[in-house]
Specification:
By secondary structure, this protein is an all-alpha fold. About 75% of the residues lie in helices and about 0% in strands. The chain has a domain of about 40 residues. It is elongated, with a radius of gyration of 18 Å.
Amino acid sequence: MLKMLSRPLSLLIGVAGGIDPGAILTRVWRLVTGAGDAPQATDRDHRWWEVLVAAGVQGAAFAVVNAASDHGAAARFGKFTPDRAR
């Protein structure tokens, strides 16, 4: 029973963790460029390299936040379950 709850719990935490990478991207972009918001893929006013760098930073931020939230959820879930349920 508890093992069945781990997957939905992990999914919910991962979705909640996906909210923060946008804020991380905005802060990093402002720190590096001094400009406002990071460019979107459809922005015609920005160069290719700016759009690609922004997408890479956003992807890296998402991966780090997602890994941290998944690992944290697994560690917390493991504290409340017996060894056989993991």
